Structures are given as C-alpha cells and as structure tokens.
Task: inverse folding
C-alpha cells in the first residue's frame, strides 16, 4: 500500500512541478483529461466491469452517492441558516462537498489501496453517481443561480448519453462478451490511466488562500470526515458486502471533484474558496483516504 501511495504522490508532485516550471503548455492538463476521458477510462471500464459478478448489492454503489448528496445538502442548508450564508455560498458549499473526485483520483487511489479488482465497483459509483450529479444536478443549480433559468432536459440528456465512459459502462453490462481479440487493445489503452490522471491532477493543483476560513474548514471536515463516516455507518447497518462497503466509503472520502471546481470557477462562484477546496482538499485527502482504508480494513478484516 505504501509503495503504491508513494507512486501516486510522486506523480502528483511531478504534475505540479511541471506546471510551476512551465515545462509543459498551459493546455497540458486539458489535453490529458480529454485522452483519459475518451480513451483510458472507457478502456478500463470495458476491460474490468464485465468481470463483475452481478448481485443486488451492486445497487448500493449507484444509490450511495445520491444519498450522500442528500446529506450534504441537508448539512449545507443547516449551515446556511446558522451562519446566514447567501445562496451563492450555499450552492458552492453543497457542490464541493457532494461531488468527489471519484474517477481521476478515485480510481488510482482505490487501485493503490484496495487493488485493481475494486475499480469496476468504483466505476459504477462514479458513473451512476458522481457523473450524473455533475451532469444533471450541477448545471441546473448553477444555471438557476447565475441566469435564473434552467438548462433544457434534452441538453442534459445529451451530456449524459454522449459521455464516453458512460457509454462504455452501458456496453460493459450487456450480456454479450467482447471478442478476446480486443483484450490486448483494452489493456494497452487502460494502462496509462493512473500515471496520466495523477499527473493531470497535479498539473491543475492550485493552492488558494481559503476565505472565509471557517466555511472552508467546516466544508473540509464535512467532505473528508463526516460524509465518509455516515457512508460507513449506513453500509454497516444495511449489511452491505465488505467489498462494496470499502469502495463506497473510499469513494465518498475522495476530495472535491476537479471538474466541479472548474465549473464553479467558470461561473464566477466564490472562485478563491472553490480553488482552496480542490487544492488543499486533495493534499489533506492523501492522509484521510488511506486512514479511512485502514479503519475499514481493521473493522472488516
């Protein structure tokens, strides 16, 4: 586990070093992200998801992110009432705590902490949870916040059905096996996932001053500690199988999604605070996520 985490950390630092030294073009992360989304993630899903043994408990992976988002919404609404937050701050706090970096960081971290066999489970959590929240909920909330209108349903549907990893997940669950001849191709295309994803995240890493600090600290505690704890308790109470419980807890424990951070900043929604959640949250999560893995392994050996 330590050696795998060391690799993750080194790749993150390499990406950030490349950005700080300007050894790569400013668009490097965007190009890498496009390659990851269009090539590496679909190949990984197509290679590993068909190996899943389908069971009713898999529904937990699709439901858990939405339940966690409801808890995040409840906590942020409560925070808004207590502290008198405006609608903009409340929306930002909800989105940065409800949406985690469950693919770009989640897949490599889970692979390092649990093993590659857990990635198919993580892909279900990511595609049916985090991705749909990003594609359906976030645009509606941000459009209502900044323009007073809502995006058209057909535009939201198009965003979902044309997303390459989502298409790959749909193909992977079909009851028709892929030809064995494509296995080497899928393996080659999926192999760079960890390295490219970590390098890209490191390249995008920014360390903004968190203002207001109180909101930042509370949001970080909520995202990295409270919500994973609730997911652990919920999975235990409902008797979720160990392998699925581990993935749910670790995916819930991932820091703020880079994509939602970029989306919020593009709308001009408290950009300094959002950048702090993405940057500092990722650094802190390098401690908290392995800690959650250790806790789960101790409780469920």
Result:
């Amino acid at each position: 586990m330590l050696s795998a985490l060391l690799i993750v950390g080194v790749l993150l630092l390499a990406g950030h070093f490349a950005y700080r030294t300007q050894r790569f073009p400013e668009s490097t992360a965007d190009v890498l992200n496009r390659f990851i989304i269009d090539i590496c993630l679909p190949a990984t899903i197509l290679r590993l998801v068909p190996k899943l043994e389908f069971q009713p408990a898999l529904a937990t992976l699709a439901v858990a992110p939405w339940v966690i988002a409801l808890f995040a919404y409840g906590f942020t609404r409560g925070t808004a009432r207590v502290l008198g937050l405006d609608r903009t701050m409340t929306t930002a706090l909800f989105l940065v705590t409800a949406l985690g970096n469950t693919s770009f960081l989640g897949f490599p971290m889970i692979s390092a902490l649990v093993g590659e066999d857990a990635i198919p489970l993580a892909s279900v959590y990511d595609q049916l949870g985090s991705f749909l929240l990003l594609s359906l909920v976030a645009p509606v909330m941000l459009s209502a916040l900044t323009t007073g209108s809502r995006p058209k349903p057909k535009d939201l549907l198009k965003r979902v059905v044309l997303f390459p990893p989502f298409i790959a997940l749909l193909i992977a669950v079909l009851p028709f096996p892929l030809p064995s001849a494509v296995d080497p191709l899928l393996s080659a295309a999926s192999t760079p996932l960890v390295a490219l994803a970590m390098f890209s995240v490191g390249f995008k890493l920014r360390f903004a001053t968190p203002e207001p600090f109180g909101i930042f600290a509370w949001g970080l505690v909520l995202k990295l500690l409270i919500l994973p704890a609730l997911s652990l308790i919920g999975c235990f109470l409902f008797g979720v199988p160990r392998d699925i419980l581990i993935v749910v807890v670790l995916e819930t424990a991932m820091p703020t999604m880079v994509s939602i951070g970029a989306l919020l900043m593009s709308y001009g929604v408290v950009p300094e605070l959002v950048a702090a959640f993405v940057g500092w949250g990722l650094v802190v999560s390098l401690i908290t996520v392995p800690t959650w893995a250790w806790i789960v392994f101790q409780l469920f050996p």
Summary: Residues 48 and 58 are 15 Å apart (CA to CA).
